[in-house]
Amino acid sequence: MEPLVKVEHLKMYFNVSGKGKLHAVDDVSFDIMPNETVGLVGESGCGKSTIGNVLIQLLKATDGKVYFEGENILEYNKAQRRELHKKMQIIFQDPYSSLNPRESVEAILSDPYQIHHMYRGKELKEKVREMADLVGLEPYVLEMFPHEMDGGKRQLTGIARALALNPKFIICDEPVSALDVSVQAIIINLLMKLQKQMGLSYLFISHDLSVVRHISNRVAVMYLGQIVEIAPTDEIFANTLHPYSTALLSAVPRIDFANKTKRIVLEGDVPSPINPKPGCRFAPRCWMSREKCENETPQLQEVAPGHCVACHYWEETRATAAKQTLA
Amino acid sequence: MEYRAGGAVAKAVNGVNLVINKGEALGIVGESGAGKTTTALSIMNLLPDRVSFVTDGDIFFHGESIFKKSDREMEHIRGKSISMVFANPLSSLNPLFTVGHQIAMGIMKHEGLGKREAAERTAQLLETVGIARYRLDDYPHQFSGGMRQRVGIAAALACNPELLLCDEPTTALDVTIQAQILELMKKLQKEFSTSLVMITHNLGIVAELCQQVAVMYGGEIVEYGTVEEVFTNPRHWYTYGLVHAIPNLTGPREELQAIPGLVANAKNLPQGCKFHPRCSHCTEKCKTEAPAMTKITESHQAACWVMED
Prior knowledge:
The complex is a heterodimer of chains A (327) and B (309). With 327 residues, chain A is α/β, with parallel strands linked by helices. Chain A has a domain of 154 residues: Rossmann fold. Chain A contains twelve helices and 14 strands. In chain A, helix 4 crosses helix 5 and helix 6 runs parallel beside helix 7. By secondary structure, chain B is an alpha/beta fold. In chain B, the strands form three sheets. Chain B has an eight-stranded mixed β-sheet, with helices on both faces. In chain B, strand 12 and strand 13 form a beta hairpin. In chain B, helix 4 packs parallel to helix 6. The radius of gyration of chain B is 20 Å and the shape is globular. The relative contact order of chain B is 0.15. Chains A and B meet through helix 7, helix 8, helix 10 and strand 11 of A and helix 6, helix 7, helix 8, helix 9 and helix 10 of B.
């Protein structure tokens, strides 16, 4: 099967005046199959959202290629991009700042159809009602404005708007991070149901590993602008091979009294992505780091079926990780 | 505890009873608007006078009522015996003073140390939380989010408090930094037998750090007990809902059980059990009569009419 989205050597650098270039996304490649959810995890500032914004073309990539259904969308002109947005949509973390405060829900949900001249009048009204119903918004909500709604309803409005044009691919940028757990569960269940119903593919960006595990088929772990590990969900959660993913997973506090996890505590903060040094970017915080790590950038290599990792010494991770844990 | 403003009354905290022993860690969990932070601010006696009113009840610290203390007496307790770590370190640190100065101020006031000694003590504190001593003269904006939160913790620990209140101390932080801070708190508990109140919506943090947990809903504690009993054998349907709404990191992936409806509005609390409009096991009795806390075991109690075994 052909991948729906294929990202090749994507780079996004920002100029920081007087300091140089900020490498937000540095040589990232991955693909997303039809009907698949790929989870993208990592700490704040690692470039997760930047990837989302580049794919939806809110940002202009510095270099690299993004194929959607086989065509490089980074070379699209304005009219083509407009057509593309029927097939590719985004849901943002903060629905409050991504919904127009001066429009009612009805107007917000009408926008996509009006922009693309698809429906008008009675038909439009009906279509909007249908979309609201699809995500579980009751008809009375259509008259409300964003500030009158709670976070859950706002996020549902954001989802309904993204779905309006019947897209194939949706970028979910931390869609549940700002919500309480009970609302979070509603949104996650809805996204999974819609995926089945409409045959959607998701790029699910989140820092919450348990949410990502729940929703994704494959998971990519990012560190400082680069993907350090990517594998099928069950595989990566059972058997992380990159030291960073191993530490990240062990750091999540969990309710499990039977087998108390041992935590790997990483020293220090994430280094600055401005003019990063050559070599492995995780080396300064890594317990396995040696000379080679500081000089040679490790490439993402497939070490088991579907399991890629970017580490020179990945074979030693599991064995040495045990020694790093605190009782 | 009530908030009154513009004719509206919000019953934020209603009949909460808590006991925190020395060296013990208590977790308070619940969704936004459950009254968690208000409870903590009352312990610090930090609620704004003009809009907040304690209508009933009292808080005793070492057997003495906190509400009967004068402002001056409270000043001696705050920062010295009880201190607090706030959710957003950027808004709780003064941007105009260097972090060294801010922390030293508290030490000079409470411990009567001179400038030089206080600075030395501050440097040691920062080193305990993993910040190099040369950063003493930096301003809050020069630190990263995780470091700022650690500065906040260092400031709260400055005078070796007996009780440390943490209001969502790691919510704004990444997991690896969160792990650093949780380890630090465990260490403090062990070394100084500091009592800890941990307010959070993250059940995992409570499970790892605390011995006791109180689940709050609609300004009330609906379930209270040892962490293990409450999380493995929840007896209030709200606690059950919370535990089952979160996806797991291990084990099979099951569909998440969402809690329908909205968090109870403190301005318009329902009759009877505050949770009944959202509860799937609601009976007629739940709608009219509020359940009282019932003992399940010596160390576990819950307030629910339809508890199941």
